[in-house]
Amino acid sequence: MIYADNAATTRLDMDVLDAMLPFLCEEYGNPSNAYSFARTGKKALKEAREKIASCIGALPEEIFFTSGGTESDNWAIKGAIFASQSEKKHLITSRIEHHAVLHSCYFLKEAVGVDVTYLQTDREGFVSANVLEEAIRDCTVLASVMLANNEIGTIEKIQKLAEKAHTHGVLFHTDAVQAVGHIPVNVAELGVDMLSASAHKFNGPKGIGFLYKRKGVALFSYMSGGAQESGQRAGTENVAYIVGMAAALEKKVGCLEESMAHNSALAKNLLRLLHEKGIDFLLNGHSEKRLPGNVNISIRSADGEILLHRLDLMKIYVSTGSACNAGSTDISHVIRAIGVPSGYAAGTIRITLGNDNTLEETAQIAEAIRWVTGAV
Ligand code: PLP
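That is the input. Now the predicted structure with pyridoxal-5'-phosphate docked in place:
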């Protein structure tokens, strides 16, 4: 098989599994306990927090473990709104966010009456700092714009956006689920107040992630219970998975340059071959400022769902949009938002190449696409 859907999830790294195993088997003590048997777990949590913090330029006490990207996004957005004292509350996000962000905003609008502005992007998926500034009101609490788009791979100019938000006293959150472990991410350079990440996107286990929350930022802790995570996110820590997440991130960050070069060479090769085979397609997102392994294309007069299933029969795994949209035959909200021309939009597929993929596989994918689209 050829697995080319690394934006949906990645294979667990075997070194990561080795790091996790002791905490699933022998070292099962609850890190909150005071006796010596719990100490190894407690120490492992501390070390994992330090490793993750150092990988993104944060302080250990600014890292909060969660169940993944979805929870981190929910907490950042709902937590900021519920912590705000202002009577009227306004929230800004973009039209191309992941549903973890969009549906959190929708919930706040429906359940609490928060006003939400959804910023339009340009054709390449960029949110403009001026457009963000124009949307800011006196009662704006938070702006949330993703670092890298999960469908089209565009890497936003987060530093500029965060700066604009801060000029007006607005908090800034970024969903960096697709970016962490794939491109350099430093919270101090980005200037964000909060950042979400998820381990299964960088060869760690599924169901674990973290939220970076800058020291001094007040978030409502909506997970009620024990005093874990400095009393801000209750629930017994998933030690093995947290250890795995830290090991995975440390490994990815340690070989980031090679990994980016590898993935971008694969993506370039695939695009070259698709062109050579005479396939009429548009590359979605920015041509350079994009996630290295992301190839999101819209093929003229094709149907993305049919392409996906035909490739599936050939054991080539790609997707049409985000994994959470799988099964939906609609054109994704991202493809709509960036305005892909109608003759192409329905023929959109996302191929996301990772460290395990090879040049030979990109040749096989290109040939398979030529075959299923009937290009000559
Ligand atoms: N945000 C983005 C940009 C994503 O791509 C995803 C997952 O696809 C999520 C959030 C949700 O993360 P998780 O699967 O860890 O809940």
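The pocket of pyridoxal-5'-phosphate is lined by residues 68-70, 73, 98, 100, 146, 150, 175, 177-178, 198, 209, 322-323 (CB under 6 Å).
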